[in-house]
Design brief:
The chain is α+β, with helices and mostly antiparallel strands and 163 residues long. It is built from 4 helices and 8 strands. The strands form 2 sheets. The chain has a 5-stranded mixed barrel with strand order 1-2-3-6-5. Strands 4-8 form a two-stranded antiparallel ribbon. A hairpin with a 4-residue loop joins β1 and β2. The longest helix is centred in the N-terminal third of the chain and has 15 residues. The radius of gyration is 18 Å and the shape is globular. One of its GO terms (molecular function) is endonuclease activity.
Length: 163
């Protein structure tokens, strides 16, 4: 391979790194846990006002008025109290400025942990990444083990609640 071809390949690889999901990861600090699916964060520690609202990508937790809605929120409050440092991997943003994200605390995926605990469903409409297959398996295991909301005789996902 010639020097020019090698240089072009290197340039292509470097440019592609700028567009990979890991390139958008950033650290933030929890200002508020809004519910079992949403947190407000600041990009600087100690701030009282949030700079970004994050919605957990690929999952739907029960709404506050649903069974296990408070448990999902309380789980997040224990996992990431006010001021906790989180790692955020932005996936997208809606029209209201809410960022859809994969969130980690101390290397643990919060999105995935909500599924493990039986406190969320995999979102059938948004979870399209390859790792979502693993999430479906974990959701199924929570159903089989009757963890969290799966211990109820009937669990209605948030997208059908109140219809």
């Amino acid at each position: 391979m010639g020097t020019r071809t090698g240089a072009c390949l290197l340039l292509i690889m470097l440019v592609s790194l700028c567009f990979c999901p890991g390139a958008r990861a950033w650290d933030a600090y929890v200002v508020r846990v809004e519910d079992g699916n949403t947190i407000s964060v600041s990009e600087r520690p100690g701030r009282e006002e949030p700079t970004v609202i994050l919605r957990f990508y690929g999952i739907d937790a029960p709404s506050q008025s649903q069974p296990f809605g408070r448990e999902a929120r309380d789980f997040l409050l224990r996992l990431m109290p006010k001021g906790a440092k989180v790692s955020v991997d932005s996936v997208g943003e809606d029209d209201q400025g809410t960022v859809s994200a994969l969130v980690q605390v101390a290397g643990t995926s919060v999105n995935y942990q909500l599924l493990v605990e039986g406190l969320a469903w995999v979102s059938r409409s948004t979870c399209k990444a390859m790792f979502c297959r693993r999430w479906y398996i974990q959701e199924h295991q929570a159903v089989v083990d009757r963890r969290g909301l799966w211990g109820l005789n009937m669990s209605t996902p948030p997208w059908q609640w109140g219809r």
